[in-house]
Design goal:
4-stranded antiparallel β-sheet, single chain, 10 strands, 7 helices, DNA-binding
DNA sequence: AGTACCACCTGACGGC
DNA sequence: TGCCGTCAGGTGGTAC
């Protein structure tokens, strides 16, 4: 599920559960989720330390360590984190376990193994190294207009490009473009600056609305297409029915009346 | 600077 | 019940 709002919830969850606990065991159940690190190196890196802060940039999570860089986590498509006071038998698709000295345990579970765990000297370094764009909730209007407007490709593809702006995925891009009344295939370079400025405000509105309802789409305000994002579903503005199309290899949902094709 | 396609991996769902 | 194709919200690589 994870796009920016889901990852932000995970960040808050980590903040509430793992900060200040001393790591007493690192168990890698599947090396496939480690990115550029061996299980032994990861174990050495984390052992006997504790996390001091949980941070996020776009869809990327960072658990900072006392004086020693940070653990980086990406949830991929199916990744999730859970903390429990007592450790039980590993569940299906559990990939990494961190035990804490006080008995608690953090589990990283990821069915499809598109998630990634690594470590880095700092959040800043990691963002630079991966060439991630500004966070979708932090980006200024001016920056958004300039970055999105400078690409000659479908606007949906552009706003989902993590190098342009970090945090927007397939689902939220549909909602943003629906709210902005812009067809996903419109070239982002052809949207006027005013339109892009408005779009960046809509990005905030949409992501914050989702956060407010704890990413439970059924609780989103009326007028949000994510409440029922499916072909044939009624347009939330009552302008017809939603249709699907493929843009940049991803399935997009639009209201053909609200979002006229270019 | 774009695109299209493939890959990673697992499971759910519909048709036969 | 089983087999098969298709699809899924992520990213990254390659070839054009």
């Amino acid at each position: 599920m994870p796009e920016l709002p889901e990852v932000e919830l995970a960040r808050r969850y980590l903040e509430d559960h793992v900060l200040g606990r001393r790591i007493s065991r690192v168990k890698v159940l599947d090396e496939g989720i480690l990115e550029g690190v061996g299980p032994e190196a990861l174990r050495e890196y984390l052992m006997n330390l504790s996390f001091t802060a949980a941070k996020r940039h776009g869809k990327q999570l960072f658990l900072e360590l006392e004086e020693r860089g940070c653990l980086t986590l990406h949830l991929g498509m199916t990744g999730g984190l859970s903390f429990s006071a007592e450790d039980g038998p590993p569940a299906k698709h559990d990939r990494l376990l961190l035990d804490f000295e006080d008995g608690g345990q953090l589990v990283f579970n990821d069915q499809r193994k598109f998630g990634a765990i690594s470590y880095s000297p700092s959040k800043r370094r990691y963002i630079m190294q991966k060439h991630l764009g500004p966070d979708a909730l932090m980006i200024s209007r001016r920056d958004f207009v300039e970055r999105v407007g400078s690409h000659d490709r479908a606007v949906k593809t552009t706003i989902m490009d993590q190098h342009v702006v970090a945090g927007i995925g397939n689902l939220y891009s549909d909602e943003i473009l629906f709210q902005a009344r812009v067809h996903p295939m419109v070239l982002s370079s052809s949207v006027r600056s005013r339109g892009l400025g408005r779009m960046r405000d809509i990005v905030r509105t949409v992501l914050q609305a989702s956060l407010q309802v704890g990413t439970d789409f059924s609780q989103l305000p009326r007028g949000f297409m994510l409440r029922d994002r499916s072909a044939g579903a009624p347009c939330p503005r009552r302008n017809g029915r939603l249709e699907s199309l493929v843009v940049g290899g991803r399935t997009a949902f639009i209201c053909p009346s609200c979002q006229p094709s270019p």
